[in-house]
Amino acid sequence: MRAMITYAKKTDFPVEWRSTGFALPPRIGAGHSGFRNRCTVRREVGLVWVYRDIRIEDQAAIRAAQNEDRLAVLFVQDPLLVCSPPADLLFLNDALEALREELVARGSNLFLRSGIAGEEVAQDHFSRAHAGLVFSIGLSLLTVLFWQQVTKFAGEIKADTLYATRSPEHGWQRNYNIILSNFEGKINVVDETILGDDSMPHPESHYSRWKGLRSISLGVPRPSPAPTTLPSPPDVGSISGKLGHVTVSEYAKDIFTSNYLEEMEKADDKNTNGLLSFSARELISDPDACLKTMTRENKDLFRMLRRPLNYGCVSIAQLSFAGAGEKARAKDWHRRMALGDTLNSKTDWKYWLWRGCFVRFRSMGALSSPDAPAILFVHGFGASSQHFVKNLVGLRTANLKLFALDLIGFGRSEKPATHYTQHLWEAQIADFVREVVREPVYVVGNSIGGYMSMSFVADHYPSLCKGAVLVNSAGSLGESAPDEGRTQERLSRNEVVVNISKGAIFLLQSQIRSILVKLYPTRPDAVTNDLVRDIYRDSTDPGAAYVLESGSRLPSRRTLIDLFKGYTGPLLVLTGSKDPLNDASARARNIGVVYPKAEVSLLDAGHCPHDEVPEIFNEKLSSWVETVERTPSSKSVAT
Fold it and tell me: Among the listed ranges 70-74, 205-209, 395-399, 423-427, which one has the minimum average pLDDT value?
């Protein structure tokens, strides 16, 4: 039976629920009005499912559910938490314990469930690789067991209405769609409190134009305070002693090894890299003071607040109230844009929440086939996942799982005011494979995306990747240079350089088509209006100047020769021989000399052969992957 759905947007809920005698206010979204008598009518039960909105203040779903007779708040532990760093797990545990204490103080409670319960899946089903990634459990099993815990708990407490805060994040969307088909009660989906009106940007709109049309100058919105009292939790019978009093760490014992738990407990989460001086408990109990202090001390909120933003301990309105107004408006823009994209039936874009930022990606092909190899496309500087549209569409009928993502700072991904480095992008690629693809990939990178891909495989082969494909890759083939990346990564931004970068973006925007035509010497007609429009629109997002400014002073990188020394897997070099940026043919042959296992193929194209001659490119790529899959031990030598 399909659930009934109620969508709530700008509803003014009372701050405190009060009842006098037997008279109760009408239940929100219940479909009826009037008074009900406790003695003659069954007490209605509401269930709030928290996903990445683990806070008490400015929590839209809890506020929407505050007039229920009985109320339970449920958090289901994602089994892929095993992929998270120990410090992140400790922060999540602290956030959940703080939320539970706040709910108990208001008369309710937080209930915890594991996405894979120990009694349902034996511990020997897990084989954790040294990188911390579970490969033995498929995506479908993980999804089924996760949503089953939500519907199972709803059945145990006889919930009438399920409340959830809507999110564009693909994990929320995936589980919500399955829950929708299996929950027999009502579902009330509410929106997070956001700045200004409820309008969402058009898919092709620009930030400055959208910001100018919105009434965001009416004063700084104060976050909605939590209700001072909440309905008591329902009677869960024999399981009441187990739920609501169990930490994430205790639940993890059903899944993780004891050694991993010991490692997790030793991690220092309170002052990681000197950027976070407040615990999740303090953020939830006194968010205004903590956020204002952090905003005043450090401009790089992306690094400083990555855990609170990633787990939903901080809302956009809280950021704005704390003094980070422009950054809050930028996050508001990206969240609305992501939500609009996911609700748009004309696009197949998805969003992944990485370190508190929304990252766009696309996936298609044989996603449900366990035997289909996975391919991940990584774009170059200034481009996005849209640059691989011809490859995704051209290969979608093959027996391949296809993925392409927008690196943070590019495309429709968020562009936080931070210092961008190759280390940041490499970490993003690795986490995307762990959390979204969930199996080793063949990574295909163009230009600087090729260098990033090679850096990724050098550090993560064979745990996260099966092979690499370099497409007119950036990266030096000369002598090794000292790696100063990890020390320079924390350098503060120079606002003068940022302003110069803004001017440079303005100049480059008027030359997008002419620049692309030079990069496509064989088929300039392959430069489509859609490609030009996408690159222009992406460059107008807030924060785009920081990406360009970082690109002018990236830390010293390892050379390709250094990366080849740490890699022993298959390598395909697909190079456009007419690349105007360098002697691409000589570079490709040199790679074949330095790494004899590489298979080198020269194409009659420029810097972007995957988009200029996609038919030839797709054929060579799919044939090479098929060969490697069929004979994994075979070594292709350049000719």
Answer: 205-209
Residue from 528, 532, 517, 542 nearest 607 by CA:
517
Question: What whole-number distance in Å separates Cα of residue 49 and Cα of residue 53?
Answer: 9
Q: How high does pLDDT run on average in the chain?
A: 77
Helices (H), 189-348: 207-213, 248-252, 258-266, 280-285, 287-297, 301-304, 306-310, 316-321, 325-343
Among the residue ranges 225-229, 364-368, 552-556, 629-633, the one predicted with the least confidence is: 552-556
Tokens of 21: 């005698």
- Going by the DSSP 8-state scheme, the letter that residue 525 receives in this structure is G
Nearest-angstrom CA–CA distance, 95 and 285: 10
What is the CA 407 to chain-centroid distance, rounded?
Answer: 11
* pLDDT at residue 598, rounded to an integer: 96
Site of tokens 């090729």? 450
Above 70 in pLDDT, residue 52? yes
Q: What is the DSSP letter of 235?
A: P
Q: Whose CA is closest to 291, among 269, 308, 311?
A: 308
Backbone angles phi, psi at 155, to 5 degrees: -70, -35
CA 581 vs. chain centroid, Å, equals 33
Can you give the pTM of this predicted structure?
A: 0.84
Q: What is the pLDDT of residue 266?
A: 54
Strand pairing partners for 376?
A: 403, 443
Q: 492 is written with which tokens? A: 């503060």
Q: What is the pLDDT of residue 306?
A: 87
CA distances from 129 to 133, 439, 474 (A): 5, 11, 30
Other CB atoms within 10 Å distance of the CB of residue 530: 10
- 8 within 8 A of 28, measured Cβ to Cβ: yes
Name the H helices within 106-223: 139-156, 170-182, 207-213
CA atoms within 13 A on the CB side of 487: 4
pLDDT in tens, 108-157: 988 887 765 433 333 333 333 323 334 444 555 556 677 788 898 898 88
> In this structure, what token pair is assigned to residue 235?
């009677």
